[in-house]
Amino acid sequence: MSKVDYGTRSRESNRDEKFDEEFKAKVALEAVKEEMTLVELAEKYEVHPNQTSAWKKQLIEKSAELFVRKNKKDEEYNRLKKEKQELFRQLGDSNYEKEFLKKCYVSGKGKSVYSESDGVQKLVAVWDFL
């Protein structure tokens, strides 16, 4: 087998070089089989041995995800979606309260005081009706 000189390629060409998923999977599967050394695989596929090692590690670490039930992924997605909606709702409420308090303060008809509910301290306006 011929030796590949990894030092002859410029850094720019290495950065621009893209490998498709099928190629990465093929190399990683062969690396997992351990029928050849990582250096031999790197020479065979003309990639750096460190890249071969990285793809092997990634395959081993993420292989369990292949067996995750679809509905479990959907449950996680829906949970995150609901959490995001709730955060946006809270942000909207907060902005509404801020604008209300700003108007109260600017008009001079109210004064600012702090109120605590559910362990959260909020700025509220108190109207002066006198």
Q: Give the rounded overall mean pLDDT.
A: 77
Number of helices: 5
Give helix % range.
55-70%
Beta strands, count: 2
What strand line-up does the widest sheet have?
Answer: 1-2
Question: What is the ordering of alpha helices and beta strands?
Answer: HHHHHEE
Shape: elongated
Largest sheet: 2 strands, antiparallel
N- to C-terminal distance: 96 Å
Low-confidence stretches: 6-13
Strand content: 5-15%
Radius of gyration: 30 Å
Based on secondary structure, the structural category is: alpha+beta
Could you describe the 3D structure shown?
The chain is an alpha+beta fold and 130 residues long. Helices cover 61% and strands 12% of the residues. Helix 2 crosses helix 4 and helix 3 packs across helix 4. It is elongated and about 80 Å long. About 6% of the residues have low confidence.
